[in-house]
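As the next step, I selected for study one protein, both as residues and as discrete backbone shape codes, as given directly below:
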Amino acid sequence: MVRIRSTRVVIEDEIRPATIGFEDGVITELSNHSPDFDFGDNVILPGLVDSHVHVNEPGRTEWEGFDTATRAAAAGGTTTIVDMPLNSIPPTVTAEALRVKRSAAANKLHVDVAFWGGLIPGSIDEIDQLVAEGACGFKSFLVDSGVEEFPAISIPELKAGLARMAELDVPSLLHAEDPASLQLVREDVRAYRSYLESRPSDGEGRAVESAAALAEETGANVHILHVSSADAVDALARGPANLSGETCPHYLIFCAEEIADGSTAFKCAPPIREAQHRHRLWDALLSGTLDMVVSDHSPAPADLKEIESGDFGRAWGGVGSLQLRLQSVWTGAQQRGIGIERLARWLATKPAELAGLRSKGRISEDKDADFVVFDPDGSMTVSGRDLEHRHPVTPYDGMQLRGKVITTILGGKTIYEDGNIVLRSGRMLVRDG
């Protein structure tokens, strides 16, 4: 048995001194015994779980890939990611496509990886086989996804899929924007305001209301992805108990008023909105209306982000941030007087529960020995070129963030320490396993 200790360990939403004992990759005891490794006053959190990551391999590995994505995760204290069914080619909408993706991931994983399936027009008959293969649930779009091989789904098709997901007890993940509300970016394509107005907040709210009705009618667990607006928060708060939601660091840290024209590194969908929406998102996390904070890491090369032209109409919409989730959220939380114990629930426990990864997300006996050792009083100035992501493009470039990841431990083995990746030992996971 190996024992590690800190004066500040996050256990069931509380911080207290503890020694954690683990053996064969599993936590076996919480005690006050003398440790083999003492991390002093650094905080030990459960290994983070990021349930919203676009790895893009195979097919668009030049955007990101399993090696670089999982290196970035390890460096950021994330020990498990769940890969989205797009923008890889083929998309993960069949059992065969999932097998292709697993083959592409083999021998490249620095952290554990699970997989979402996708529900697109005509793929409802694949749901059972994907669940049998271990898919954690199913993502769908109500609007254009941005890639032709993953089209938006109609409400009747989504309803039929939800009925089957309810029977299988797997969640539906929904990109919720009302397609009727979307507009082309008009006038000055470099103006952030033009892009913001092309995807209005009330359209997001209406789509969440539609999702709430479907959740109530079918009994399926429906999870709203990347909530960006007060309108969506209000619709979630009125929805049934089987409707949940997440937000992302970029919606909590940035606001539209501060984004310069031409700064396409900030482009994402839904867009980063005004400060009043950011305030409501923090309130929703504190109240439990929003369950979690995930990265929605969706990088692309600089040419696809239109970094030179600054054209928001043409730029790929996605933020590179997988390595920075803990520090960015901690920066915003500390500014608001929110304790670090809250972050364990938002960044680890709830994402693990959504994906059905029962051995993840908590520091307790019989859970996986996954930990991040974090200095909350440290700091870093972000340099995109120094991140482990495949591309340096990130809206955080040049920003000072609070906190420093000291050590990342996966299955009882140190995989990241003192700024270096030291071991590659990730596994491929299935739901409920």
